[in-house]
Amino acid sequence: RSQHNPAVTWTQYTKALEQQTRETVDLTTKLRHALEAGQLELYYQPQVDLASGRIISAEALLRWNHPQAGFIPPGRFIPLAEQSQLIGPIGDWVLHQACRDLRAWRDAGLPVTPVSINVSLIQFELGSVPDKVRQALTDYNIAPEELTLEITESIFEQPGQALKQDLEALSAMGVRLSLDDFGTGYSSLGHLNDYSFDEIKIDKSFVCQLNKGRYPQAIVKSVIVIAAAIDADVVAEGLELESQITAVQALGCTKGQGYHYSRPVPEAVWRQLLADQKSWTA
Ligand code: C2E
Ligand code: MG
Ligand code: MG
Ligand code: MG
Questions:
Q1: Which of 9, 15, 136, 198 shows its CA 20 to 30 Å from the CA of 182?
Q2: Helical H runs in 62-213?
């Protein structure tokens, strides 16, 4: 926007751009070391059955704690990881760590739930996602239906034939597929018919607008109708308020996730949540 501000000269603009590029390069260099330096960690956030308040699954969310730079949010470093293809090794680590954690919870006798991980389009482009998933399931002795892969809608912007084959292979394997951030990207409803999704996650931007009009309500209602037609579960994201929970339930949604129940928590805290099988409704 700055180039439209007459007070900002071209030189200043160029400098700002250079500064931005330097920061990006610098952060990418740091990210390259993050894995081996053990700076990456998986947090878990519960997915909840809205009627009973019980935990039904866990979404693994990546955290990066840099000793000097501090906490860097995924919204900042995931795009860098994608641009630099570091998402390849990082994604492999996420897959293995989530399976390793799930195995550890089971071995500890905890009431275990399935786990969801987020997977980028770039990971599919780098190749072998189904093989890697099959290997991880074998290595940690996990049933395929205990793992869900969350894929954002943006994959539909350039859905190559290879991606389609990979998603079909994963489905055939019994791994669950979830369509994340539904409603935010290039949504062609036709694609829902081409791929076999087991779950649709309604983006939090709709949930937080539910009290602001009929359009967001209509979107949520349509998603629920479509999901029923393709035999998929619906999960409402970003539930922060009691009123939002009541609203999505009134529209027919039975599952949700959000700060009202719990923020994403470190693995040790997650174990405690599982052990307590915490129920958020009376
Ligand atoms: P996402 O997969 O849609 O994850 C949900 C995001 O919403 C998370 O942000 C979560 O902390 C946040 N959230 C959950 N409940 C609430 C709520 O009630 N209110 C609000 N305002 N936010 C809520 P987070 O952890 O910052 O992650 C952002 C995105 O980064 C994720 O969005 C996902 O697209 C990406 N990401 C995170 N971990 C990974 C990963 O391991 N691999 C890949 N490829 N992407 C990841
Ligand atoms: Mg997700
Ligand atoms: Mg999401
Ligand atoms: Mg998101």
A1: 136
A2: 74-83, 87-107, 121-126, 129-139, 161-173, 189-194, 204-207
**Calpha distance 99→175 (Å, rounded):** 13
For ligand 1, what atom is nearest to the CA of residue 240? 18
The token duo for 7 is: 């007070």
CB of 72 closer than 6 A to ligand 1?
no
pLDDT tens profile 198-256: 999 999 998 988 888 888 888 889 889 989 999 999 999 999 999 999 999 999 999 99
Nearest residue (CA) to ligand 1, atom 34: 118
Please work out whether the CB of residue 137 comes within 6 Å of at least one atom of ligand 1.
no
User: Distance between the two ends of the chain, CA-based, in angstroms?
Assistant: 50
Q: What is this structure's pTM?
A: 0.92
Q: Where are the beta strands (DSSP E) in the chain?
A: 40-49, 55-66, 70-72, 115-118, 147-152, 176-182, 199-202, 233-236, 255-256, 265-266
Under a CB-based contact definition with an 8 Å cutoff, are residues 178 and 116 in contact?
yes
**110, burial (CB in 10 Å: exposed 0-12, middle 13-18, buried 19+):** middle
ipTM score above 0.90: yes
